[in-house]
Design goal:
The protein has one helix and 44 strands. By secondary structure, the chain is mainly β. The chain folds into four domains: 84 residues, no CATH class; 136 residues, no CATH class; 68 residues; 142 residues, no CATH class. Strands 19, 20, 21, 22, 23, 24, 25, 26 and 27 form a nine-stranded antiparallel β-sheet that branches. Strands 34, 40, 41, 42 and 44 form a five-stranded antiparallel β-sheet that branches. The longest helix is centred in the middle third of the chain and has 8 residues. The radius of gyration is 36 Å and the shape is extended.
Length: 585
């Protein structure tokens, strides 16, 4: 009995099928295509193909189908060789067929080209996302001189394409027509990806697509090749790194590496673990994560468990160890610099983290060494649209950042963290990835810039718990080195550390009164005197702790939260001031 099956080749073909009742075989495969007994109550039959014109089966090796006793199955054979299966109709050749793999494909990597597949329609059940017809024009190429395509983003009916050194928008299902009045119109196009239109300005996303973030019609990203942080909005491209931070981004983006460098972590073996590809090692302050390799072994780390109560790591490897592991295990991984960006929906800010040597694999454990380890040097800061400037630095180093609904999240070493805990009773302010760092503000006192001054006091309005880490004047000039060499040194004044109101409190042993060695409170302001702590310069008569205050044209002050006053709670700082007198020259 014949049946008709329509397939999407060049024609519709007639196929044949046969129904048969198959019995259980207990023999093994042999010459001529005998069946082979499978485990259980099933039999595998060898694949067959049509041989001569009489239809004799030929064994071509392998197995085709598992057959259970007394179960009806369908056996499909080769296509009819004649179009529509008609008597004496035209025969088809065994030539090129659409969508068949080439036996010897020549791979091409076109880094500046886009390609699109067939359509997908969930309502009608059409899914042609795996169909790339060579009979249609489904590719669009950009100028290779602008580098590779790093990212695409679909916005309404446009497709924004980010190359390393240029940005275009591609019209979807339409083309642009330029009129005689120098205007533009759009019309429907036959191609899915229409005409490419470039944005004004030679900016791109370099090789840092991870810096991309979006909020409504504004897109943010980095262009490391030009030492710039960019914003793309309705008014085009804007270099927002120029807003007071030109020198900073110029210096720091240039140090973000584009080249993979090999790094290693050493730790001590505890035991051989539970399986041939499992091992327990001593937990250290450096994280061991998936993707690492072990020196002298083929494979990579697939899973890591931190055991309790010892806290040691149990490492699962992708393959059994080929040789005995030494007592000191060396884990290897590759790392390169990244510029990670994200949109903070809570504060409506763009957050960017420039990481000079970073990867999803990090050499620190939960951020412990982020601030001190030079191999993990980084800077995370935010841009605020309300003031059109950069407002703050952060002490955390994320692997990824994103917003969901009204919450801002970041990922660190496969852990998901929610920012801005609104429950103040948790006292988690300044706590990132289980590591607490003090909040600090650096500002400049510069009244009467053309006058040399003696700064005598400092005061601030706000909460208890702030302390002065440094109070340094500007350089007063270069002098010959005192040891007689020809090198010159620059001189400036600085003060002693000023403790907070609570930490500077002590009880006088003689009087029993509570005194303050740091900030004191007067008329609801916290005030402190400045004591000079400078190294004496050549010719200076009064110096050091004998002189109150410091002298200079201006002073740079860093003030931060202490480690004891309402730790992790809110700290407010409304205003800061200084008292000075004009120097006698």
């Amino acid at each position: 009995m014949a049946a008709v099956l329509e397939v999407d080749f060049f024609n519709t073909y007639l196929l044949k099928k046969r129904n048969s009742h198959l019995r259980q075989y207990n023999t093994t495969i042999g010459v001529g295509g005998d069946p082979v007994q499978a485990p259980g109550n099933a039999t595998f039959f060898p694949r067959v193909a049509m041989g001569s014109s009489l239809g004799d089966p030929i064994n071509i090796g392998g197995t085709d189908i598992a057959v259970f006793p007394n179960r009806m199955v369908k056996r499909w054979y080769i296509e009819e060789s004649r179009i529509r299966g008609g008597y004496n109709n035209v025969s088809t050749d065994q030539g090129v067929r659409a969508y068949l793999d080439d036996e010897n494909p020549l791979q091409q990597r076109r880094i500046n080209t886009l390609i699109y597949s067939g359509i997908y329609n969930s309502r009608t059940g059409i899914n042609q996302t795996n169909v790339f017809s060579i009979g249609e024009s489904i590719t669009k190429s950009l100028d290779i001189s602008y580098g590779s395509i790093q990212k695409t983003y679909a916005e309404d009916t446009n497709l924004i394409v980010f190359q390393e050194n240029k940005i275009h928008r591609a019209l979807i299902d339409k083309d642009t027509i330029y009129t005689t009045e120098s205007g533009t119109q759009t019309q429907a196009a036959a191609a899915v990806i229409g005409q490419f239109v470039s944005y004004k300005g030679d900016y791109g996303i370099s090789k840092n697509p991870e810096s991309f973030a979006i909020y409504n019609y504004r897109k943010y990203f980095s262009d490391k090749n030009r030492n710039a942080i960019m914003r793309l909005s309705n008014d085009g491209l804007t270099e927002i790194s120029r807003y007071g931070m030109l020198d900073y981004f110029r210096d720091n983006l240039a140090e973000v590496s584009d080249i993979d460098t090999l790094q290693s972590i050493s730790t001590t073996k505890v035991s051989g673990g539970e399986f041939p590809n499992s091992i327990v090692v001593v937990a250290s302050n450096q994280a061991i994560t998936s993707g690492m390799s072990i020196s002298g072994q083929a494979g990579y780390v697939t899973c890591v468990f931190k055991q309790v109560p010892s806290g040691d790591y149990q490492i699962y490897y992708s393959a059994p160890f080929s040789s005995a592991l030494p007592s000191t295990i060396v884990f290897n991984y590759k790392t390169k610099g990244k510029v990670i960006g994200g949109w903070d929906i809570h504060n409506k800010n763009y957050v960017v983290s420039m990481q000079k040597n970073s990867n999803q694999v990090s050499t620190d454990l939960d951020g412990v060494n982020d601030l001190t380890d030079p191999n993990n040097s980084y800077s995370t800061l935010v841009f605020d649209e309300d003031i059109n400037g950069w407002v703050s630095f952060f002490t955390y180093k994320p692997n990824f950042m994103f917003s969901n609904l009204n919450r801002f999240y970041s990922i660190k070493n496969a852990g998901l963290y929610e920012h801005y805990d609104v429950n103040a009773s948790n006292n988690t302010r300044g706590d990132f990835y289980s590591v607490r760092n003090p909040s600090n503000i650096t500002f400049v006192f510069n009244p009467q810039p053309d006058v040399v001054k003696n700064f005598n006091t400092i005061s601030y309005e706000g909460s208890n718990g702030w302390e002065v880490v440094s109070y340094v004047s500007g350089f007063t000039g270069q002098d010959l080195n005192p040891n007689g060499t020809s090198t010159y040194v620059q001189n400036n004044d600085n003060t002693l550390f000023i403790k907070s109101y609570s930490e500077g409190s002590y009880v006088d042993a003689n009087t029993g009164y509570t005194l303050r060695s740091g900030f004191d409170r007067k008329e609801n302001r916290y005030v402190a005197n400045l004591r000079n702590n400078s190294t004496p310069s050549t010719g200076e008569i009064i110096f050091g702790a004998q002189m109150s205050g410091i002298k200079g044209y201006f002073a740079t002050v860093k003030i931060e939260t202490d480690e004891t006053t309402q730790l992790g709670g809110p700290k407010e700082l409304w205003a800061a001031a200084t008292n000075f007198v004009t120097s006698s020259y």
